[in-house]
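Give me structure tokens for this 183-residue protein.
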Amino acid sequence: MKKTQPEAFTLDRIATPVGQVLLVTDAEGAVRAFDFSDYEARMMRLLNRHYGPVTLTEGRAPERVRAAVAAYFTGDLTALDGLEVKTGGTDFQRSVWAALRTIPAGETWSYGRLAQAIGKPAAVRAVGLANGANPIGVIVPCHRVVGANGTLTGYAGGLERKRWLLAHEGSQGGTGQAVFALD
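Here you go.
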């Protein structure tokens, strides 16, 4: 049964080395969405699909969440690991998103390996679709999934961002270094 009252979330905008991010949190401080500002329409579609009507109020995310985002972009690649996330989505999607959080920074997995990790090795295409519908980019690291031959495949934030994030994390020959300050 759909809710009659819209979900109410806070929308924070944070500058990063790869563009402004949109960080959506709930009243308890759980992250509900993380996307790039040039993909705001996509983020809103995903929020509406997951929760029905939503109300976003501009404001600051909890300081611990902002600090974790800043720490990640300055090189603490495990800073996002402890953040609480909540999503809508199907049970299958949530299982894919939970498995994504087990991929260590600096590693990439194929869609096939991700499908095996959730116990559904034949569901490679469905895993790819769930990966692409992830509403909490970077924190739920869908950018760490690559093609079976190691090639960079689609990324909702754009392939250049995916390339930057993987390099930042030391994957695919990247340096893992970045200069960043949280405003």
